[in-house]
């Protein structure tokens, strides 16, 4: 694949935009479905939890989070205007029922003044954080004192298989992710590593795996 095409794929995955945004959102849902559901299951959500998701895309998996327990309140933030609009459209009934809200905001500038959330979740966004320390500080700021943070990524050895990740992706292996969290105010609680079914990329079969970490404010 031509270099410019790979760069455009990387730009779209970082921040879906323009005429291809809807297609990109749908493809991310399909390619990351198992990873999202694993992370959601790991939330162990309880009734009346207030849950923040950073980078929810088009909000396809919000219904799965809200189905975990009664009276969950969900808030999603994304810095793609197209994805926020799509999430609002897709989840209109949940919004009307005051179960979900969506905001246009980058991960390092969350639009909340108080520590509001029991749990925060992000799936496949870490690669794009220009300043991960600042993002983690923001997450700590909005989590309640006993709040938990769930972060899901594909490990570096998996991401390096994809030709587009050489353009603007910062990849992490397990040790690097755990160090990042531990050195920036989080205590590791649980680690999940799962092999997923192989996927086809540009006609080639590639291995797929997920790494999900649950951490508490230290």
From TrEMBL:
Pfam families referenced in this protein's UniProt entry, alphabetically: Methyltransf_11
Biological process (GO), any one: methylation
EC number(s) stated in the UniProt entry for this protein: 2.1.1.-
GO MF terms, alphabetically ordered: methyltransferase activity
Assigned keywords, A-Z: Methyltransferase, Transferase
Residue ranges annotated for the Methyltransferase type domain, each copy included: 52-151
The protein, known as: Class I SAM-dependent methyltransferase
The organism of origin for this protein: Emticicia soli
